[in-house]
Please model this.
Amino acid sequence: MKFEHLGAQPRIHPTAVIAPTAVISGDVEIGPGCQVLHGAVITSEGGVITLGENVIVMENALIRATSTNPVHIGDHVLVGPMASISGAVVEDEVFLATGTRVFNGARIGARSEVRINAVVHLRTSLPAESTVPIAWVAVGNPVQILSPDRHEEIWAAQHELDFPGYVFGLDRETPDLMVQLTERYGQSLARHQDDARVD
Model:
């Protein structure tokens, strides 16, 4: 299913194959030889999404751009089932395994592997040919790659990256943070009420 969002329609190369239950919304460009499987969602929330050549987006994966952070996925990238990419750059020949999470402002270098349920956090830069082990967390720039049992170290680096400030423009110390966050984000997402199906 393809949708126009904020006046922009998806641009899909004729050799790309999009499953009938995938959703492609807004300012999205999908290159030659790409495969987007059932249940995948590729949605531009005010920023451009580009997929290079021969990118595979597997079942139920989510790729989302924002007005602050577009998404670029290079050539020969595999985005595994239930993976999530939000506002990030993924260079060529990267493997993102099942359930990986890549957050806003992150950059994953060429020929890297992010393994099952691993995380590349907000504004983290992963050099080329890096590996993030199963369920580990890559955080910061310069990057630290930490096992999930090292929560205090992960939180120390993550706190400095300021997720609510960077993504939502809100101070973490705001007393009603979740009230303001959900109201502001909800207003932004409500722009989908005017989307028009184009296929």
Remarks:
- The chain has a mean pLDDT of 96.
